[in-house]
Each structure stands twice: as structure tokens, then as C-alpha cells.
Amino acid sequence: MELVKRSIAELVGTMLLVFIGCGAVSVLLMLAAGTPTATPFDIGIGALGGLGDWLAVGVAFGIAVAVVIYTLGRVSGAHINPAVSIALWSIKKFPAKDTVAYIIAQCIGAAIGSALFLFIAGPDALAIGGLGATAPFPGISIWQVLVAEIIGTFVLMLTIMGVAVDQRATPGFAGLVIGMAVAGVIIAIGNISGGSLNPARTFGPDLIATIMGGSTALVTTFPIYVVGPIVGAVLAAFFYKYVAGLDNN
């Protein structure tokens, strides 16, 4: 398959991920606007039912990931995440030139997805919903966020290695299992780091918020969501390659 066509598939796939996942976060914040918070740890998500809110967000992202994998996975592999592309490149499972093209496409797709959601949802999606952007939660240090993103993305990449990259995996289940992994991790760490696991997922809302609202997130918090997911994904790729003897199959 031509790199251009595969890159377009990555652009569209990441656009859908951000539109559905970040859109769900933004809608949840708009629904909860004005609701008294139970604890200082609550910035809006949680006001409608505590952990149930994060369950909804996690499921939304999980469904989006599964939909993209089952629809576009045969075209591009459905990385839809720069950390995944870089991790596969690091263990020589993906060419360098393709990795660069995929990352550019993923970031553009994420920005388009965020812009489209702002267009259909209106200004409150940015002013109240923050376009579903990720940021450290109150009382959480940058280092805690970084470790949370490393662990979360390690789990995600380990799942990808086991059910999608390893040729011994049972076919047909990758989308479902990877989607469930995304949902589970977001439910666990969402109220700590926002549960990004994906530099493009954070880049899209941050870029549009910078253009439309003067946000400084691209230079203040975005670097955390670049370093954490990439470190976690690369560690998982090398770990799985070592323990599963990936070069032997």
C-alpha cells in the first residue's frame, strides 16, 4: 500500500479518535458545568457520578480505537498514535520514513478532529470543555503525571505487541482488546494525568486552544504528554520483544 494512502488513513483515524474521545470529555465537562464539586480533586469530570464519568470517557476512547482498528487497520495498521509508531520503529518493526509521515499525519488529523468538534459544539466546547485537552489534575505534580503516562502507555503498547504485532496472536481480536486496554487505563489514571497515552491526542486540542483561545498548554504541559507516552511505549516494545522472542516468529 502506498505511503500516501496509509498516511491519509492515519490522519482520518486519529481525527476520529480525537473527535469521539476528546469530544466525549468536552461534552461531559459542559454537562457538569455549575455542578458543585465534592473534592478539590474534581475539576468537573466526576461531578455527574464520580468514577462513572471516567468509565464513560474511557469507553468512548476505547470504542473510537476499536472502530478505527477494525475499519482502517488493514490499510495503515491503525497506529493513530506517534508513540506507537516510534516504538515500532525503535524495534525495527516500522521504517523510519514511514514513521515520520505517520506522525505528521496523526498530528494533522488530531488538530482537524478537534477543530471539527469545536465547530459543531460551539464556543462552550473550548471555554467550558477545554476541547477535552489533558492536563495535570489539582494536587498532582508533573513527575506523577509523567510516571502515570509512562505506565499507562506501557500497558497500551504491551497489549498492541501481544495482540497485533506478534504473528502468533489469535486474529480478529486486536481492535476489541486494544480498545478495552485504552478504556481501562483511562479509567485508572484519568483523574491523575487525563489519560492521554498519545501525543497526537493531546496535540490536537492544545493546538486549537492555542489558536482560538490563547492557551499556553503547548509549551507548558504538552511536553509531558510527548515524553511520557513515548518512553512507556518504547519500554513496552523492547520488553515484549525480549520476553516473547519476537525476532523468532
UniProtKB/TrEMBL annotation:
The keyword Transmembrane applies. Keywords: Cell membrane, Membrane, Transmembrane, Transmembrane helix, Transport. It is found in: Cell membrane. GO terms for cellular component: plasma membrane. GO terms for molecular function: water channel activity. It is a multi-pass membrane protein. PROSITE patterns: MIP, PROKAR_LIPOPROTEIN. The chain crosses the membrane at residues 12-34, 54-72, 100-122, 142-165, 172-192, 222-243. InterPro entries: Aquaporin-like (IPR023271), Aquaporin_transptr (IPR034294), MIP (IPR000425), MIP_CS (IPR022357). Belongs to the MIP/aquaporin (TC 1.A.8) family. PANTHER family: AQUAPORIN TRANSPORTER (PTHR19139), MIP17260P (PTHR19139:SF199). This is Glycerol uptake facilitator protein.
